[in-house]
User: What shape does this take?
Amino acid sequence: MNHDQLALYNKLLVLYMLNRVSFPLTQAQIYDFLLERNYVNFMNLQRAITELVDTGFVLANSKHNRTYLTITAEGQETLSFFKNRIDTSFKKEIDEFFNRNQFKLRNETSVLADYNKTFSGDYEVRLAVKEKDATVVEVTLSVPNEEAAETVCTNWHRKNQNIYQYLVEQLF
Assistant: This one.
């Protein structure tokens, strides 16, 4: 396979993965899957994702230390033209991976934590759990400093299910 064909193939793998789910994937999730299986090397994958974003086939939304990727309508259309160029065994492995891990992957991307510094100098932390397009729970907290904001965000990712369960038990 020449360089141009390899570059196209790498892009198609990313588009295929993003098209398989109804929620954004993190860039790390895509990297983990494709690099663990040696489908592509790091530099080529990084180049492919950058080019997909630059051409408008993929949307990238970065929040603190995570970049969320979503396929666009243009990306879906392009994939429909070239999907048959992806090796059947690769598609099967990707499909099986998503069938086994869809809940875990969705949970990783549907639990959101973000913070911003306010005019008064403290930090506002926004925590949420989303399911498809619906917000399951959303909480906003004011904390005194950035270190506390980062700690709250980290703990939300680890403990959100317990916190949600506690809120439901207390409020219903």
Notes: The helical segments are 3-19, 27-36, 42-54, 73-82, 88-110, 146-171.
